[in-house]
Amino acid sequence: TMVSGGTTTTSDTLEWALSLLLNNPHELKKAQDELDFHVGTERQVEESDISKLSYLQAIVKETLRLYPPAPLLVPHHSTEPVNIAGYNIPAGTDLYVNVWKVHRDPRVWADPEEFKPGRFVTTHKEVKVDGQSFELLPFGSGRRSCPGLLMALQFIHLVLARLLHGFEWRAPGN
């Protein structure tokens, strides 16, 4: 169902974010330093804090870039022949957008296979995840975009922030 799909994809995104951070401890430290600076250590992270946490937001974007919740978007069906960017698409063709490939395009992303959240505070600062930036489409775009996009983003940011702020994280063996 749509509800179970929404909970699975958000929890998967959180797991990927934690895995990426545990494998990149310098990025984890940057996120925790940002949390300590903006939130302190005397209280829990609140939803109102998220807008001040630009590096945490960059981590979420980079996680969604590397591991989109749906690597293939909902298919579209051409009802008539059309030419898109020099490709002739016959009527009756099912079209899939391979988001995983779009997110790893070396013409758009330097070192596309690497976890580099800093790109979203420098070279790709203006890139959004709401479907308006076609180089980053983890939730699709337009009227067929994910209906739970805003809820998912709020949940992912708040839970990740609270996990990073409330606990010391290390990879096994460290």
From TrEMBL:
Cofactors needed by this protein, per the record, are: heme
Keyword Membrane attached: yes
Gene Ontology cellular-component annotations: membrane
Q: Where in the cell is it found?
A: Membrane
Q: Which residues bind heme?
A: C146
**Pfam families, from UniProt?**
p450
The principal location of this protein is membrane
UniProt keyword list: Heme, Iron, Membrane, Metal-binding, Monooxygenase, Oxidoreductase, Transmembrane, Transmembrane helix
**Family membership:** Belongs to the cytochrome P450 family.
The protein in question is named Cytochrome P450
Species whose genome carries this gene = Nymphaea colorata
